Amino acid sequence: MISTVYAVLFYLATILLVVGVGMRVWKYATTPVPLNIVVSPAPRTKRGVVFRMFREVIFFESLFKSNKWIWIFAYLFHWGMLIVLLRHLRYFTLNTWWWVEIISPIGRLMAFAMLAGLLGLWARRVLQERIRYISNPSDHLMLALLVGIAASGALMSYVTHTDIIMVKAYMLGLLRFRIGDMPTDPILMVHLGLVALLMIIFPISKLLHVPGVFFAPSRTLVDNAREKRRVSKWARNLPPLPEGIPANEEA
Amino acid sequence: MAPLDDKKDVPMFSDYPQQIPKIECGASLDTDTFKAYPEHNEALGFPGELLPNWKEVAIAKMGELAKKNRAFQVYLDACVKCGACTDKCQYFLGTSDPKNMPVARQDLLRSVYRRYFTFAGKYFPWLVGARDLTKEVLDEWYTYYHQCSQCRRCAVACPYGIDTAEISMAAREILDSVGVGQKYCNEIIAKLKKTGNNLGLNPKALRATLEDMEEDLLDETGVEVKIPLDVKGADILLITPSADFFAEPHIEGLMGYAKVFHSAGVSWTLSSYASEAANFGMFIGSYENMREVSWRIRQAAKDLGVKRIIFGECGHAWRVAYSFLNTLAGPFDFLDQNYPIPQHILEFTLDEIESGRLKIDKSRNDEHVVTFHDSCNVARGSAMGDKEGGQFDVPRAVLKAVCNNFHDMERDTIRENTFCCGGGGGLLTDDLMDLRIKGAKPRMTALKQVADEHGVNKMVAICAICKTQFAKVMPKYGFDMDTIQSAHQLVANAVILDGQETEDDAE
After folding, report:
1. Do B82 and A63 touch (CB under 8 A)?
2. For chain A, is the Cβ count within 10 Å smaller at the N or the C terminus?
3. A·B CB contacts under 8 A
4. Domain span including residue B340
């Protein structure tokens, strides 16, 4: 029964995540950029922009320059999460890939990097008056959700192990549209439930910063405005302006 | 300049330029700018007064902008409220009002967007800080979106490049579309549409002003330096802010361009039809108005049959010229393609200096210890030359070529991190004087640092708004009004024209 509920939940969450983010990305990609609004320091070539975005996504360059504390916590959290996620691939592949084996021991530790980053960000959100001022309940709940996921995961790694072989069999089954049995440890159920919730709210929350960062015209445009015109479709349909100087205005 | 020691009791400086104040809710709530009269709004194609169905119109406009402008859509969605921008705005640093923190300023509009356009905001408004659009909210928009100079300092700081200027422009566009315009911007655009410049200066008055300047130049140099107007068949059309015709230190800049052109031996002209570089259409976020203002430049260039267009020192003008003009009024296939279209006067001057055609005596600026205020819209919204960062390096190269004493201000206050002067983006109006003084605080503090350390006594800006703003605000901080200088003022000091009588000759 519980296995079926979670199976339905995960199928639903996956559909919502993929379709929701897909629709959002489609919307971003098809919305025109009527003017070149790239912000300095702006590269003059496409290669330069790729390099700029690489630095933004890999190093969080702008954040590093603008706020060291937020950068440290955000960096710990995001990279911790990435490695933890990659480690989780072992539960979704029949034979664990060699590089997943290699990162697995680090992946286990990275739960703490994730938690440290999240708690640091949360502390700032509570203690720093400027950030407290701009925070909504959803901003706190998002952190709570991620802390819940990371903490329940770490608990299973370090304190009360679940039957991980059984979890893996269940997940492999889901990938093949077969609903097997999953362990009914409360911590596992909390962990998976929160993950499904995160997947569901992804496309309707600030987690849209993930696709959004790749569509921000201020960073993704090439500084070539003098050479390249960009007239968007709606601008092309504006009424034409009169040619020539009206006689009464001539000097 | 008055020695700064005498001004130690000036209470307004911060300890250092980016000093962050404790937040003070509502500190800037009463700072309101005058609203436009119906005739100003109507001249721009907006309703004269607040529409009876303003709420529906405003929400529809918001939806329309999200469809027409990717930046608006992505920026409303992507913010994670990390707080990295909260200490970057000069108006927050100067006023302590938390609604002047960039993210809070965006949220004034984002909260409404969420309420009407997102799942979470429609069904769980309290969770995501979504709120209904009410008259109070509309008033709040008017107040705080007119405390943003659209300088984009926050966009550099944001991990996603969220640009508050885009949100602020959209907000003003929405306000205009329901009949709530700002007097300063809308009156000026209306004036430009009538006369060709923001001042409402007619061709006759303009010609007389230019003739006065020619006389001044003759008196000073003994050389007949011309400032031509409406000369058909000239090679170069100079588009310069109308402030260059009447305000100090702007005029000195215009006379500087004239000297450079004279010395270069090129034929050039101003246009009375397009006698304004500034494009206030950008301030109000109106693509249509910005396009219409830009169009005049194209028409003037065609009518006069020029081969090149060069822009004078004007920050927002240069952003529109460099980044938007080609899109709004192009293609400029009728101009000489061997030159940048358009070109900045500093690019032209640097070419003349580097080629050795311009005769320079740097020592004539020896009494000046100079620093450079990167004008925000040039620094973050445009470029110069053909190398990345040219908008920072070209002006400095020119300044270092014409004077011996140059010191930059603190790195976090210049180049892409430069502060706005405090008067940009449609705020350069007397009814916002209090805000302008407070907004200038970080820059004034950075200037004081180099004044104390290196004896800097001149700050150069390449923007008409910066120059006017600083000329007005500097005295409040204990600096002389003429501490602010045009770049071409220093060029003009150092240039020696052929046949010019110099002091050496006199001896």
Report:
1. yes
2. N
3. 232
4. 190-499
The residue among B24, B64, B80, B332 with the most chain A CBs within 10 A of its CB, best to mutate, is: B80
Half-sphere exposure of residue A60, counting CA atoms within 13 Å on the CB side? 22
Residue B417 amino acid letter: N
Asked if residue A43 has a cis previous peptide bond (ω within 30° of 0), the answer is no
Question: ipTM score here?
Answer: 0.95
Chain B positions in Cβ-Cβ contact with residue A64 (cut-off 8 Å): none
- Contact yes or no for A213 and B331 at CB 8 A: no
CB B240 within 8 Å of CB B201: no
Give the 3-state DSSP-derived string for A178-246, with helices as H, strands as E and coil as C. Answer: CCCCCCCCHHHHHHHHHHHHHHHHHHHCHHHHHHHHHHCHHHHCCCCCCCCCCCCHHHHCCCCCCCCCC
**In DSSP terms, which residues pair with B372 in a beta bridge?**
B460
Question: Is residue A189 classed exposed, middle or buried when 0-12, 13-18 and 19+ CB atoms within 10 A define those classes?
Answer: middle
Angle at B459 between CA B198 and CA B444, to 5 degrees: 90
- Residue B386 contacts A where some CB pair is shorter than 8 Å: yes
Whether residue B41 is contained in a domain is answered as no
pLDDT digits (tens, 9 = 90+) for B471-490: 999 999 999 999 999 999 99
Q: What is the spatial distance between Cα B312 and Cα B271, in angstroms, rounded to a whole number?
A: 13
A50 located within any domain: yes
Length of chain A: 251
Q: For residue A128, is pLDDT > 60?
A: yes
Contact B74 A216 (CB under 8 A): yes
A166 is a domain residue? yes
